[in-house]
Amino acid sequence: xxxxxxxxxxxxxxxxxxxxxxxxxxxxxxxxxxxxxxxxxxxxxxxxxxxxxxxxxxxxxxxxxxxxxxxxxxxxxxxxxxxxxxxxxxxxxxxxxxxxxxxxxxxxxxxx
Length: 112
Known about the structure:
CATH class: Mainly Beta
Number of domains: 1
Largest sheet: 4 strands, mixed
Distance between the termini: 21 Å
CATH superfamily: Nucleic acid-binding proteins
Number of helices: 1
Oligomer: single chain
Order of helices and strands: EEEEH
CATH architecture: Beta Barrel
C-alpha cells in the first residue's frame, strides 16, 4: 500500500485506490488509465475492512499529509512493514524472510 493506495486487480488492470484499506469491498470509479495500470477513487464502501477506522482529522483525504488514518494503528504498522519488505524485494532484490521489527508509539495519534 505505497502512499496509502489500496491495490486491486480487475479486467486485466492493476488498480490503485487511495484511502482504501486491505479487505475493503468497494465500489470505485476509474479516473485514469496508463497501460495496464489504473487509478480509481472510492464511490462507496460496500463492506469496510476490520482494519478500517474513522479518521480523526477533518482534513484527511483532502490535504494529503497523512496516508494511513483510515486504518487502525496496528494496521498502519503492518502496512509500513509491508512497504519496507516490498522495497527490499522489488527494488533491492533482497529476499528477506525474517521478521521486520517496528517500534510502535505509545500514542496512536499526535506522535510526530
